[in-house]
Amino acid sequence: MTGPRRPVAQQSLALAAAEQHGGGLGIRMQVPGEWHDRDVPWLGELLDRACPIGPVDLFLDLGAVLPSRRDAAKEALRALDALVPLATWRTVAVAAGGFPERPEGFLESGWHEAPRSDWDTWHEIHHSGRSYLSQLHYGDYGILPTGYAAQTPVSGNGGPEWGILRYTTARSYFLAKVLQRGEHRDAINRDAARRLTRLSDFRGPSAGTGEGWLRDCAQGSVTTGNHSVWNRMGNIQHMTFVVSCLAGHPR
What InterPro entries does the database record attribute to this sequence (predicted)? Predict the structure, then answer.
């Protein structure tokens, strides 16, 4: 994957790989706020180089879409209106992330609920009536805040002393504080899992591996995990639910 503002050397490597392997080229356009068409000329130059090689895919990256970005869908549509006609795209994906950073006071309260603004944005786009809607594909950052994607993981110390269990429902993201270490670690972590399993929207272990692990953690039949386990199970739960919703049969 490449983009119009990536260094020429990186673009050339991406183009060479696409030509060698024949899988096409992904082009990422970032819209972290208001849409501006200043990158369109550079995109045109990149397309001139890419289209003779093979199919091209458009990846519209909205970044973090939190409640403060009320116009995210409008700006995404402005971008799509400008970008979709520029090429015969094989696919067009719109990606966003909605899980928030740790809110103020979270370490004291141990609990937070946030609206799924990114999901609302996706639905607003799909109710816009645009002719290209059938081309659009859904993209998702998973359960971590979007800024984490560019960070280098800290190694050697096992991460911070606390962590977060994350759970996705139809309308909300829930965050529950857990402990990586400490005297009352297991009790606190199992209580956090129980709090999530007591949500009215908790779907139960039949919904998938993520829910199954939360149920088992709450009941004490598995260990209470660590940062790797919490992130893995949270992503499994989130992605399983999103896929079922996109397929039209959420469980």
Answer: Protein_beta (IPR025683)
Burial class of residue 183, CB neighbours in 10 A (0-12, 13-18, 19+): exposed
- Return the biggest CA–CA distance within the chain: 62
Domain map (residue ranges) of the chain: 1-100+116-151, 160-251
Give the residue among 111, 104, 76, 92 at the shortest CA–CA distance from 192. Answer: 111
DSSP string of the chain, one letter each residue: -B-TTS-HHHHHHHHHHHHHH-S-EEEEEE-SSS--GGGHHHHHHHHHHHTTTS-EEEEEEEEE--TT-TTHHHHHHHHHHHHGGGS--SEEEEEEE-PPPPPTTHHHH-EEEEE-HHHHHHHHHHTS--TTGGGEEEEE-TTS-GGGGGSPPP-SS-S-SEEEEEEE-SSEEEEEEEESSSTTHHHHHHHHHHHHHTSTT---GGG-HHHHHHHHHHHTSS----HHHHHHHHHHHHHHHHHHHHTT---
Please give the average pLDDT of every successive group of 10 residues along the chain, which has 251 residues.
95 96 95 96 96 94 97 98 97 97 95 97 96 96 87 63 97 97 94 98 97 98 96 98 86 48
Q: What is the pTM of this model?
A: 0.92
Q: Count CA atoms closer than 13 A to 103's CA, side-chain side.
A: 15
Q: Rounded to whole angstroms, how far apart are CA atoms 166 and 227?
A: 12
Q: Do the Cβ atoms of 112 and 175 come closer than 8 Å?
A: yes
Residues 27 and 1 sit within 8 Å (Cβ to Cβ): yes
